[in-house]
Amino acid sequence: MAERMLKFTTIERRTPEKRDAEARDRDFLEIYADFIDAKATEQASRCSQCGVPFCQTHCPLHNNIPDWLRMTASGRLEEAYGLSQATNNMPEICGRICPQDRLCEGNCVIEQSGHGTVTIGAVERYLSDRAWEEGWVKPLAVQAERGQSVGVVGAGPAGLAAAEQLREQGYAVTVYDRHDRAGGLLIYGIPGFKLEKHVVERRTQRLADGGVEFKLGFEVGRDATLPQLRQRHDAVLLANGVYGARDLEVPGGGSKGVVAALDYLIASNRIGLGDTVPAYDSGELNAAGKDVVVIGGGDTAMDCVRTAVRQGATSVTCLYRRDKENMPGSMREVANAEEEGVVFEWLAAPRALLGDAEAVTAVRAVRMRLGPPDSSGRRAPEPVDGSEFDLPSQLVIKALGFDPEDLPNTLGAEDLGVSRWGTVKIDRRTQAANLDGVFAAGDVARGASLVVWAIRDGRDAAVSIQAYLQTKAEAPALVAAE
């Protein structure tokens, strides 16, 4: 091992080649190239094989990163992929969109010692893409049919991960989703320049080929209520995410030209998929030829500003009330956006939107400073008197985060327990809701979070659902024996 690993002192960190901003800012193709075999092997060899691997402990899925890096460095690529996918249902997706700088790579020991982190995400993507090319990704290995069924509400990462785990255990699984394609926000929320759609589609096709049934264009609460699904299935998993956009509570916030981030991104992704979107064609959800201001500092805001650049916006500005060091989004995405011409107004917040009800014309903003910590422990932004300024804008995109919908009402289940934030109230040990046989995973229970956490929740929920169904299957036999 010593010959193949621990080379971080002699080999510099290298990331895959990235297309120049001028070559990428008018298309929605992914911006990073794949590693070639030699480069993936070389970069994997930089791993220090820590006794306590912080990369692994800070990964929500606890992926066995040091071991599959060692296998990659040794040229044992199929084995490396096998170990990678053993704890992750979508490694090629996480390799593309996880904020590694805040998770595995951000906690890499050699990064802390000044040698530059191992490029874990790029190697993970390389292994998974190679696995698809070489046929190492096998069909679902389904055990004997158990005669019990599970309904999964939501075809996003939490629902898909749970569906795969449960189907392999022999349960009949039906996934219900309001959209006309499976994948949830992986298809409709994340732009193609971060995640091309064929990468998601081959995963969902693998599930369909393995016997998972998809009922698309199916809205729970409209086409069937949660109580009706409970009658239809032995267990139900709620994994329908959070879609309620937070409002911009300033004067003019309801003007035409002020749109929610998710509406904007869904329209753009649908256009990329070849759909007709009237609101895009009319210009309502199209940045072409407009001054665009995106309000927010998370990864969704970064998706919006970079999408606006590609749509041909005249100017794109991101307005965020804290400084760069305190923004929640990935620093890698900020750097990509800056390369593509996005202007960041740090420590600035909207005070009013100018124009009239029929058209926004500008954002009136105010400079902020960071005061004492708030209840979350972060320094709270405070306005600076007399610091107002105007930003011309004909399209304002609200990327302020997401809240759950009114779940008891929308799902037709008034007795469904919810938290004070509106998420499904669950037992955190089992992810069981207050209704018998109902579980919840991902953002609908956790609140808006990362894809990797949704996958983790889906896998954990599958374990609890299986335990519940085994108990349920054994109950008649115990009654008969008595």
Topology:
Layout: H1 21-24, H2 37-44, H3 54-57, H4 65-73, H5 77-86, H6 91-97, H7 109-112, H8 120-134, E1 149-153, H9 157-168, E2 172-177, H10 185-188, H11 197-209, E3 213-216, H12 226-232, E4 235-238, E5 244-245, E6 258-260, H13 261-272, H14 278-281, E7 291-295, H15 299-310, E8 315-319, H16 331-339, E9 343-345, E10 348-356, E11 359-373, E12 379-383, E13 389-392, E14 395-398, E15 402-403, H17 407-410, E16 438-440, H18 443-446, H19 451-481
Helix pairs in contact: 2-4, 4-5, 5-8, 6-8, 9-19, 13-15, 15-16
Domain Dihydroprymidine dehydrogenase: 26-135
Protein name: Dihydropyrimidine dehydrogenase
GO molecular function, one term: oxidoreductase activity
Description of the molecule:
The protein is α/β, with parallel strands linked by helices and 482 residues long. It folds into three domains: 7-134, Alpha-helical ferredoxin (Fumarate Reductase Iron-sulfur Protein, Chain B, domain 2, Orthogonal Bundle); 149-242 and 404-481, FAD/NAD(P)-binding domain (3-Layer(bba) Sandwich); 247-402, FAD/NAD(P)-binding domain, CATH 3.50.50. 36% of the residues lie in helices and 16% in strands. The protein has 19 helices and 16 strands. It has helices at residues 21-24, 37-44, 54-57, 65-73, 77-86, 91-97, 109-112, 120-134, 157-168, 185-188, 197-209, 226-232, 261-272, 278-281, 299-310, 331-339, 407-410, 443-446, 451-481, and strands spanning 149-153, 172-177, 213-216, 235-238, 244-245, 258-260, 291-295, 315-319, 343-345, 348-356, 359-373, 379-383, 389-392, 395-398, 402-403, 438-440. The strands form four sheets. The protein has a five-stranded parallel sheet with strand order 3-2-1-4-16, with helices on both faces. It has a five-stranded parallel sheet with strand order 6-14-7-8-9. Helix 9 (157-168) links the parallel strand 1 (149-153) and strand 2 (172-177). Helix 13 crosses helix 15 (299-310). The protein is globular, with a radius of gyration of 23 Å. Its cofactor is [4Fe-4S] cluster. It comes from Caulobacter mirabilis.
